[in-house]
Amino acid sequence: MILESKDPKNPLTIAMIGVSKNLTKPSTIVMKYMKSYGYKVIPVNPRAKGEMILGEKVFGKLDEIKKKIDIVNVFRPSKEAVEIAKDAVKIGAKVLWLQLGVSSIEAKEIVESNNIEYIENRCTKMEYQKKFLKKAQSFPVLVNR
Fold first, then answer.
1. Strand 71-74 and strand 13-17: pairing?
2. Model-level pTM greater than 0.70?
3. Cβ pair 56, 42 in contact under 8 A
4. Radius of gyration of the chain from its Cα atoms, rounded to whole angstroms
5. 104 Cβ contact list (under 8 Å, min separation 6)
6. How confident is the model at residue 8 (pLDDT cuts 50, 70, 90)?
């Protein structure tokens, strides 16, 4: 599974593009959630470069991050996916993950031709819940007890 690290002492690193400073936005909620389950999440947002979001330094672009990135998680419009795919190839990411509502045939072709896994129109938080917590709901508090 993409969200599973082969080395439990070395969690996966997610570069999350489009994370907002607004803590009520889906991108920030997902960032907080993934961090709470042990992932290293690095926010990428050119308008917040150098600031902190959820205790993490914000980068303006992927290539500014000096740490190895496993998953590039995209909270941006589909029209931006092609350029992000090219950047994901340049940094040697393992996965390009486009969040709910985001997809691009061209981005898919770019990353898959470079042996990078492509996922579109899926939420990392929801996929984590299904795979590891066995919950299909996006909001676990709604589960019948």
1. parallel
2. yes
3. yes
4. 15
5. 78, 81, 82, 85, 98, 120
6. low
pLDDT in tens, 77-131: 999 999 999 999 999 999 999 999 999 999 999 999 999 999 999 999 999 888 8
Q: Please, where are the H alpha helices in 53-120?
A: 81-91, 105-112
d(CA 116, CA 84) in angstroms, rounded, equals: 13
**b/e map of 63-101 (b: 16 or more CB within 10 Å)?**
eebeeebbbbbbbbebebbbebbebbbebebbbbbbbbe
Among 103, 100, 115, 15, CA closest to 58: 15
What the block records as the tokens of 9 is: 């002492």
CATH 3.40.630.30 fits 13-142, yes or no: no
Q: Give the integer Cα–Cα distance in Å for 22 and 135.
A: 26
- Domain regions of the chain by residue span: 13-142
